[in-house]
Amino acid sequence: MIVTGQRDQAEQLRARGAAYLRKTLPTTVGGQNARWNEPVCPVAVNVRAATAKLFADRVRETAMAIGAEAAKPDCRPNIAIVFAADAGAALREIGRRQPTTFDALTGPERRALFASKAPVRWWHHNRITGADGRELSGVSAALGFAGFGAGANAPVLSGTRTTRLDAPTVVGITGAVVLIDVPLASGQDLSALADYVAMIALSRVRANVADRPDDSILSLFEADPRPAALSDFDTAFLRALYSGPPNQNGLLQRSMMAGAMRDTITGAEK
Predict the structure, then answer these.
(1) 70-104: per-residue pLDDT in tens?
(2) What does DSSP say about strands 35-36 and 169-181: parallel, antiparallel, or unpaired?
(3) Rounded to whole angstroms, how far apart are CA atoms 176 and 193?
(4) d(CA 47, CA 153)
(5) Are 43 and 56 in contact (CB under 8 A)?
């Protein structure tokens, strides 16, 4: 007797994981899918203390559950969850007060952020270091560096090695801003919204796309019925993102993540 059901199920789950990644992850930064390589310190503002605690605690709890680090409560915030009566007006005010806060975005990304009518908007800040964690050195722009635009002090590497499987650099998320338009997000369960925020705070999720994975908290504003919490695929995705070498090549990383998601969902993770 030949039993093939288990193998077929595993391959189908891997294919679903790969499809999930295509819909979820944006283009790579420096050839890698960025993640937090330092402890996260979330804070929620412009909302009641109990709600602020719910959202900050959910980010912390999710980070620790997936293999990321959470800083101590008295830390310096690097994740800002901002509740606003008008997200568009809030963005303009942020830009006026801190004009460099959008420097991490490309021109199209910035325009899309300001033009968006989504209930929740977000952006991340990234830093590229050497694979050993050291800051890159600055040299003449004539030398340049892949992943950076030419500049007076374009960072380059020295004394490092690379292969087709890994890179000489590590791309890390160093900051995230999640902007919630309260009128547009009204009616959502706060616990589900907190999971949504945790998901996008801990990963560089694609913004301004209509096609979200069906089995994901990311479909919170489109799905019917609405998801109530992080799905198994969401949790598997986040765990996969935070597993493996931090300097892994982006294409290999996504392939390994699809397999890791399958293993987590089928219970094969050891």
Answers:
(1) 999 899 999 999 999 999 999 999 999 988 899 88
(2) parallel
(3) 17
(4) 41
(5) yes
